[in-house]
Sequence to fold (422 residues):
Amino acid sequence: MSSEKMEHPRLRPMGEKGEMPEHEAYTPEVEARRMARANKPFIPRRIYFNTQATKDGIRHFVNGVGDTNPLFRDEGYAKKTKYKSIIAPPSYLYSIQWTPGGGGGPGIHAWYVGGDWEWYRPIFVGDEFKVVSILRELVKKEGRMGGGRTWIDYGEVIYIDQRGQIVGKERAHAVLGERRASGSAGKYRNIPKPAYTREDWARFLEMYQKEEIRGAELRYWEDVEVGDKLGPMIKGPLSVRDEIAWLMGAGSPFFRAHKIEYDWERRHPRGLEYVGEMGEMDVPELVHILDPFARTIGVERAYDYGSQRMSWLCQLFTNWMGDDGFLWKMSGDERAFNMMGDVTIFEGRVTRKHIEDGKCCVDIEAWAKNQRDENSMPPHTSTVILPSREHGPVVYPNPSPELVEEVSRARPLDELIEEGIL
Fold:
């Protein structure tokens, strides 16, 4: 057997307890290297999943979210709107590139826990995208989830269409924790899977039936009052089926098949997770599908994707604002793991109306709770721009000059690595 073949992680000898070699720690050296990468815009090697907004791609995405809004899926309906074609929901950009990447490493588990979005233009069928990524600050935190060793990793992804326009950007938040320490801490272990009665299911199904999509009935700025309610909108009870549907529309950071997977493993020999409970190793992303993988990081059952839950939050706003509204800003913070069997209920209320540079804005505080009445997503404020009887149609916002300048300085990642900049 050649030495090249022996280097493959699938041929690596196991330790005395049948485990893979120790996961790496987030050492001061690794932390310093991450800090040195901050505020240096780069163009990633490849797009995460979609490079174009196609009719099929948009339909697959909204199917994975559970969004039935005809603006995103019915060409005949969409042609009668001001857009004259299907458009994508704002959260579709998750299917192009999710997070900036570059903050973690072998043995370091990253939990995407929300972000702060801004959108500047609608996403039309046929739009093609490239992205620019920028790592921002790294903040050390004390927390039981990571056994007392966790970090909040901030970074931005900026999405640019074929016309050179910045369509949107997200400042993403991720928690970094050492996988072994997180598994030992077990903060989210021993939480029983919920059991629902016939009455519970009747209530859930009734909420689905009552889900309101504003659609073609314009919601004018003048008709909105402070205190107006959004929702409730239900998602769940969460199942593996929901996760697979999400992956079919939004893509996956790590799921590959056969030769493509094993070639990736050869290039990234420390990228796998060994699960003693199963006696197997595979990509850590299986925490979203298989309970034993989730338990290795201290979570009782498989759980949702953070971008998936943020896309549900986005649906709360697009359902409410109608076809002519525009979601400008959206902030979400994910505090509780949404595990298999959990229900998530979204609600919101209008907190402010204001006009900003000709834009008729409505600020909305929105949140989500699970069946245990825990804040799955605590209250945060987002902003919708609405058409106005007095001031006219929606005025789209523009990115800041500072962001435009940063994007103009972005260079390919490999060039920056070669020069020792990243």
